[in-house]
Amino acid sequence: ACGSESAGTDGETTYDWRFATEEEPGQVQYEYAKEFADLIHEKSDGQINIDVYGFGELPGSEVDQVEQLQDGLLEFAIVSPGFTGGMVAEGQVFALQFLFPDDQEKTQEILNTSEALNTQLAGMYEAHDIKPLAFFTEGAMQWTGNRELRTPEDFRGFKMRTQESPLIMESYRAYGADPSPLSWSELYTSLDRGVVDGQENPIFFIEDASFHEVQDHMTISNHNNYVAMTTVNPTFYNELPEDVRALIDETVEEMQPRVFEMQKEMNESYLDLIKNDTDNPTEVIELTEEEREAFRELAVPIRDFFRDEVVGDEGREMLELLEQEIAAHE
Amino acid sequence: MIATMLIVMIVLLVMGFPMMVPMMAASIVLLFFLPNVNSMFVVQQMMEGISSYVLLAVPLFIFAADIMSTGKTSQRLLDFVGAFIGHLRGGYAITTAAACTLFGSISGSTQATVVAIGTPMRKRLLSVGYKDSSAIALIINASDIALLIPPSIGMIIYGLAAPSVSVGDLFIAGIGPGLLIFFMFAIYSYIHAKIYNIPLAEKYSWKKRRQVTVKALLPLGFPVIIVGGIYFGIFSPTEAAGISVLYALILELVIFRTIKLPDIPRIALSTGLVTSAVFILVAAGQAFSWLISYARIPRALTESVLGTDPTALQVLIIVAIFFFIGCMFIDPIVVILILTPIFYPVAIAAGVDPIHLGVVIVFQAALGSATPPFGVDIFTASAVFNKSYLDVIKGTPPYIIMLLIASVLIILFEEISLFLL
Amino acid sequence: MNVLRTIDRWLVKIEEHILSYSIILIAIMVVGNVLSRAITGSSWAFSQEVSRFAITVATFMGISYAARKGRHISMSAFYDLAPFPIRKALAIFIPVITAIVLFIMSIFAYQYFMSLVSSGRVTTAMQVPAYLFAVFVPIGFVLGGIQFLRNMWVNIREKEVYLAQDKKDYS
Ligand code: NA
Ligand code: NA
């Protein structure tokens, strides 16, 4: 049995759902979930209540949340494919650098319409009891470092904090860096004290975690996008009355342009905050097209690592289709 | 639901069940009230609770302390402190407090400090005429300084429960309050010795002092390496713990040659035993904490206790009371793990500095666990010294008064914690 | 009975080795990672996962060893002050209930283990099945439960109060 359902005073059914996110209030995922919950509440004339959990409000890791969604304990969750790479290896496609177009709007358009993602990849997740309803970007990924990162040369001997994922580590090895997997909880201090030299994240995350306070340089590299999925437990979803399902679908669709605006505003205003923080000056540079090309050349061969070491036939087909779809947009 | 759960917990606790049982039993009770929750998630959360990398500092610091109390390090530290202040009025008592502070700066653990310093110092205190009750009271309360002085296990646990706080900063913030209590205890020891006319010990010659100092130089490297290493960024707190194991091994195995390679598994076994007894509590605490969050209890609790818009001081006072009471019954680690996520968001919203909050919480935890009627330190001491419960608590009132005063000061003046940052 | 005693002796040895070498393994992983990063510039990708594995094994396999040695943390004020007959009764009652709770937890742990087996999830760094981390949890709970039953049996058989199989009450 998924979700709690009860008869309201006027005989109408009311619903009480839980929506978990991987981020805190003020960050993209949480604000998305909150607005989604409010919209649904309003549209259903108060019959649907969704409780949004910021990260840490429900103790446990991102992977724990996914397992709870699979079991139907959580009805909704926003999930980063990166955290499910051990289950759906194909989801690691979002860790490939310089895959999506440079233009953010084009990228979001592909996320909205891609068959490779919305049909093929979504199907792989559904086989694991996770139903992705939408993919969205939380912003482009940027580099911060204790030195300027402009060319692959600058990455030589650079201790880059990454997730534990072999694919991401391989990507930075290709630039000549020493990838250092480090737990999130030790990252700020480790950057401060120079245990590691740099890290990657979207701008709003960098500012929110105050990494710019302990890093002297930031490179607007747009080397990748932080992609997240709005997911629902499929059994719960399929057992809902048709009109409720339609309401959810409609709201998910409405949220796509909203969350794009939300992340755009957030990333832009946080970039200003970083630039204007005179107490903790951070040199911000933007890579030119030529400079990005130098990285792209080293990043493209990593797709072979993805094809050969990470996924099987299904994943290779998916990447091929996705590459075609991206090419069609450029 | 809340009432049933609390009654089960308290009854089992008071009966003297192993502390993991009340937590697990309360979780099982909650599962009855949450029929849609698959019970396997209790175990998912237990495993999650102990999987944080930061938490690994706990067994490593205990391991380092175990290696040192097997070898010569703790004895040399004692001799060093005693050589300089042993002859003062109340000298042995002050030496005890200072040695507990120093050893706390290596081990991070109250229990390890009670064993390593308490056992030899109690003998000396008795030999110069202290009453056993005052000796024991001093030892258990001074060992609590170990919870504040870096590396502090209490701070590590708080850093774990409060996600965006740096454990390194917490360590540094504990130094001020730790020293404050040490000075209070030292002054009290002086007055106490004067009133009871405790005879003065012989003063060390400068030659003897130099010998003792030379012997203590390498052991004194510990606080330098740990605090300095974290402060200047050579390594993270967990790594500092690993390095202190390495350093302890180099000292005892290679330089002092007090232990041999085959001794290491035996020492590691005693560390493993303490670790598993503590970590099963951390695991059960996480599961319980997850269940009450899923049942939406924390939001209801903070709103009913604090209203919707409390001031920073109101929050700190309520936090202090809850932690003080919690730690009278339950191990401080578990209390910090369960209560921090409940109060942290409210406190931050009210403008409390997260580092200051951590110091207040860890201090209250230390205070609560040394305070009768119930307190885990009291039971540790009663087991270590083979003394009845009443014998252990007889001498504690003066210390409790001092700790309460310190508690008020630390809550009111955040500078005591934050000045080094 | 002799067979049982031999099995018991082996079990203690195994538990002791697991506890002791888990701690040593954690120390090697953490120190090795620091030294490797300092000397060669590259970190050990497996360091965190191996440590996590070791601490999980030590925690859950330690339940029964700590029970045997009477080292589980408890709040014993009332127990210590209670007169002999009550203490004797508690020394039988507490281990029984504890064993039941641990057996219930072992069922939960088995369910979680099976769900990891069927999900096929692998770990991020070493790409090994996630259920390998969970396999010791149900085993640890069952062994712990059995040990508490033995703590109870010692108190039924003997006249004195035993806090644990290997630990007589000190008062
Ligand atoms: Na900066
Ligand atoms: Na300490």
UniProtKB/TrEMBL annotation, chain B:
The lineage of its organism: Bacteria, Bacillati, Bacillota, Bacilli, Bacillales. The chain crosses the membrane at residues 6-33, 53-71, 138-158, 170-191, 212-234, 240-259, 271-292, 312-339, 346-367, 399-420. GO terms for molecular function: transmembrane transporter activity. It is a multi-pass membrane protein. One of its GO terms (cellular component) is plasma membrane. Keywords: Cell inner membrane, Cell membrane, Membrane, Transmembrane, Transmembrane helix. It comes from Halalkalibacter krulwichiae. It is found in: Cell inner membrane. Residues 6-416 form the TRAP C4-dicarboxylate transport system permease DctM subunit domain. It comes from the Bacteria. The gene is siaT_16. This is Sialic acid TRAP transporter permease protein SiaT.
UniProtKB/TrEMBL annotation, chain C:
Residues 26-157 form the Tripartite ATP-independent periplasmic transporters DctQ component domain. This is Tripartite ATP-independent periplasmic transporters, DctQ component. It comes from Halalkalibacter krulwichiae. One of its GO terms (molecular function) is transmembrane transporter activity. It is a multi-pass membrane protein. The lineage of its organism: Bacteria, Bacillati, Bacillota, Bacilli, Bacillales. It is found in: Cell inner membrane. One of its GO terms (cellular component) is plasma membrane. One of its GO terms (biological process) is C4-dicarboxylate transport. It holds the Pfam family DctQ. The chain crosses the membrane at residues 21-39, 51-68, 89-110, 130-149. Its main location: membrane. It comes from the Bacteria.
